[in-house]
Write a structure and sequence with these properties.
Oligomer: single chain
Radius of gyration: 22 Å
Helix content: 25-40%
Structural class: alpha+beta
Strand content: 15-25%
Strand order of the largest sheet: 4-3-2-8-24
Number of helices: 16
Shape: globular
Largest sheet: 5 strands, parallel
Number of strands: 24
Distance between the termini: 52 Å
Length: about 525
Amino acid sequence: MSEMHADVVVIGGGLGGVAAALAALRAGRSVILTEQFAWLGGQLTSQAVPPDEHSWVERFGVTASYRALRDGIREYYRANYPLTDRARRTRDLNPGAGHVSRLCHEPRVAVAVLEAMLAPYRGSGRLTVLQPAVPVSAETDGDRVTAVTVRHHGDDHVLTAPYILDATETGDLLPMTGAEYVTGAESQAETGEPSAPEIGDPANMQALSVCFAVDHVDGDHTIDKPSSYGFWRDYQPPFWGARMLSWQTPNPRTLQLSTRSFTPNPDDDPWLVDADQRVNPGDGNLWTFRRIAARRNFTDGFYPSDICLVNWPMIDYFEQPYVDGPDPLIVEANARELSFSVLYWLQTEAPRPDGGTGWPSLRLRGDVTGSADGLAMAPYVREGRRIRAEYTVVEQDLSLSVRGDKGAVAYGDAVGVGMYRIDLHPSTGGDNYIDVASCPFEIPLGALIPQRLENLLPAGKNLGTTHITNGSYRLHPVEWNTGEVAGALAAFCLDRSVTPRAVRNTPDLLAEFQAHLITDGVELRWPDISGY
C-alpha cells in the first residue's frame, strides 16, 4: 500500500472535480485527482449528457473557466472536423444543433478539451491523476479527514492532504468520513418548501438514467431482445398515464399527458435551431432534442447520419434507489436493461408516422459513448448524498412563484451564480415530475461548509441543497462553479492558514475571497433579468 501526498486531494473527476483541481492548480497548489471511469468529465462525458444550461450562457452567468471549456469544444471542432463554411464561421457553433442546449456535442470532444486544460499541470508534475480509481475508505481525527484510500488497478493508495474534496457523483466520501449528510426528500415541515412532500423519505430520490447514442443508417442493426423486455414493454407507472414505452409521456411542466414525435434524420437546417428554454423546452421531437451531431453541419456525406443522444423520459429508472440502497450494482444493471429495452422497442415496435412499426436501421453507437456494452460508460446520477451544511438552499430562495419581482435571495457570502428551472425527474418514492420556474440564483458559500468537518469540502452535486433545490443545482455549469469554488477555497485557506468556516464567518476574509474569485472570473451577481 503506497502513500501519496498533495496540497489538495480531489476524489472524483467529473465536472466539479476537474474544475476544483484546475482552481487549486492555478493557485499554485499540488493536486491528486482520482476518477472511477476512463473519461474525465462526468455527466458531460462518461455519462453522455449534453450540457444543460440557461438561456444567457453565451453572454454571462458562468465562470470564465467554464466558458473556456465551452470555447475549447467549439475550437476543437473547427480545428479537427470538416465543418461546412457556414458552421465554421458561426461564433456560437452548436455541432449537434440540439434543442436542449446551445452547445450539443460528442462527449469525446469534451474529454479532449478537459485533458488539454489539465495537460500543463500534468507535465509540470503538480497534478497526479489516478484513473480508474475508486475510494474505499477514509480516516479521520476528530473533525478532520486525515486520509482517503483509493483502489487503482488493484492496488490501494493512501492519499493525504490538508484539504480533501468530495467530487464524486454520489457523495461517496460522506459516509466514509462520518460527515453529516442527507439523502432523498425532506418533509415540508423540515424545509417549508411548497413542493416538498408532507412526509420526508431518505430513499425518495430522482430517477437514474443510462444514456446511449444512436444513428440511422442502412441495414438491420436490431440488438438481441433484452431479457426483461416484456416487462418494460407492458409497464405503466401509476402516475404516467400511458405505457412507459410509448410516445406518450407526462409533460414535466403541466403533468398532462403529451405526445412526443420521433423522426430520424429530419431534413432540418441546423442554422434555424434556437436552443432557448425560455421559448421552448425542445423535447417535442426526441431525435433533435439532444442531437449531438447534425450531419448538415459537416461537409456533404462525411456523417451518413445525425447522431442522437437518448436521454428521454422512457429511460428514467425509478424502481429502486441507487444511493444507500442494498445493492447499487443491481440498480445500475436494471437501469441498463431498461435502456436496452427502449432501444429494442425503437428498433422493433415503436409506432412510426407512416403507420409501420420500428426502425431497425437505428444503430447503437457505443464508439461514441466509449463503452463496452454500447451504452454510456457511467450512469447519469441526478441526485446523491448532500452535506448538512452551514446553510441549506431551499425552494423559497429561488422559486419564481415565491420570489417574484424580488429575484432570488441575495446571499452575502455568494461565490457564484446559476440558473435552471427546479427540474426533478420522477422519483423512487413514486412522485411524478416536479418542474418549477426559478429565478437566476446565487451560490452561497455556506452551502459548501459542512456543519462539523473542517477540511472536507463538497465539489459537486453534494453541496447543501434539498431534494427540491438539487433540481436546479445539479446541472453542468453549477456543478463546475461549485467545484471551482471548492478548489479555490482550499488554496485560499492554505495560503492564509485559515479554515473554510473562518472564511465564511469573518467579513474581511470573506470579502478577500470573493474579490479573489471575481479576479479569477467567477461571477457573483446577476444583472437585472427575469427567470423562467
